[in-house]
From TrEMBL:
It comes from the Eukaryota. Keywords: Coiled coil. This is Uncharacterized protein. Residues 97-116 are annotated as: Disordered. It comes from Vitrella brassicaformis (strain CCMP3155). The lineage of its organism: Eukaryota, Sar, Alveolata, Colpodellida, Vitrellaceae. Residues 46-83 form a coiled coil.
C-alpha cells in the first residue's frame, strides 16, 4: 500500500513538472480572447437593451393612445350626462336623480333617501347644493318651498 502511494506521488510530481506557466505571448493571446468575449457579451447586452427600449416605447405609445381614447370617451359621457338625467349616490348616502355637471348634481334634480322611497328635495341644484327654486320634504310629511342658496 505504501509502495502504491509512492508511485502515485511520483506520477503526480511528474505531471506537475510538465505543467508550465504561460509565457508572455500565450498570456497575451488569452487576454485577447477574453477581451473579444467580453466585447461580444457587451454588444449582445446592448442589443438586448435596445430591443427592450423599443418594446417599452411601443407599449408606452399604445398606453398613451388608449389613454387618449378613454379621455375622449369620458368627455363624451360627461357631456351626455350633463344633458340627460343620471342617478348618483351622494356623500351622505342619499340618492340623486337629475342632471350633473362635472359629475356633481347641477340643474334640475331630485334627492331621495337611500331606498329611493322618500323624497328629501326636488328642485334646482348648483355644484351639489340646493340652489334656486325647489321643495324640501320633511320627516313629518310637511313640505317647504325653497328659494335661494
Amino acid at each position: 500500500m505504501m509502495e502504491e502511494l509512492r508511485r502515485r506521488l511520483e506520477q503526480l510530481e511528474g505531471q506537475l513538472a510538465d505543467l508550465t506557466l504561460p509565457d508572455a505571448a500565450s498570456s497575451s493571446a488569452f487576454t485577447d480572447v477574453a477581451e473579444r468575449e467580453i466585447r461580444m457579451q457587451a454588444e449582445q447586452h446592448m442589443r438586448t437593451q435596445a430591443r427592450l427600449v423599443e418594446m417599452l416605447t411601443r407599449q408606452l405609445e399604445q398606453a398613451e393612445q388608449r389613454n387618449r381614447q378613454l379621455e375622449a370617451e369620458l368627455a363624451q359621457l360627461r357631456a351626455a350626462s350633463e344633458r340627460q338625467p343620471v342617478e348618483l349616490i351622494l356623500d351622505d348616502g342619499s340618492k340623486y336623480y337629475g342632471r350633473v355637471k362635472n359629475g356633481r348634481p347641477h340643474g334640475p334634480g331630485k334627492q331621495t333617501d337611500m331606498d329611493g322611497q322618500k323624497k328629501i328635495y326636488e328642485g334646482q341644484w348648483a355644484v351639489e347644493k340646493y340652489e334656486g327654486v325647489g321643495v324640501c320634504y320633511h320627516e313629518n310629511g310637511k313640505t317647504k318651498k325653497y328659494d335661494g342658496q
